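yo, TVP38/TMEM64 family membrane protein is done. seq:
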Amino acid sequence: MLDFFQKNTFSIIYTFFLGLMPIFASSSISYWLITHEQVVQQFTILQWVLVYVASCFSMAFALTPTTFIALLSGYFLGWNALIPIAISYWIASYLGFKMAKLIDGGRFLSKISEKPKVREILDNLQKDEFKIILLARLSPVLPFAVTNVLFSFSGTKLKNVLTAGFLGMLPRTILSIWLGTQAQEIRKLIEHPSQGSSIQFIIFGLILVSMVGLGYFIKKAVKH
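structure:
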């Protein structure tokens, strides 16, 4: 176990970094947006293009949560934000996956595959990886950047990450944009993004479907 951590220290630290960074970065951005809302309201098309280019990198490297970007997009741009958000998610998935691959270089997968049982479980999971990715992306609580890293480390196919990931993100993206369009004040949107019992029920439903589905496929892989 110690040998495993020593050989994968940087990969493990990078994963923890991606899990913590959204908290700090989104708090800083939220404060700036609350105090500069009128400035953002006046953004030109070019400025919004630059915002989404930046968001590709910020989401890929966990500086901003994907839901946070979708909420703000809905608030400022309404449903016009759907296509830019979808494209940004797709590019962020690619960047996050490739960066993790570059950092790890296959060491993580190689090390855990030394154990025959683990290798067997991974092989079984890969048979259903499209469904697993879709379910992982469906949940609003599973960190986008961290799952990109885990997919990359586990040897998941990039085309499945991009395709299934895109499909899995759509429901929660549409929900987040809609929430943004309904908000009257940006402060309330940021501080209480999921007000309303019906919204909380939908979010809980997405999480439940994701967790139950993932649990099923993991259990299936372990039993085979």
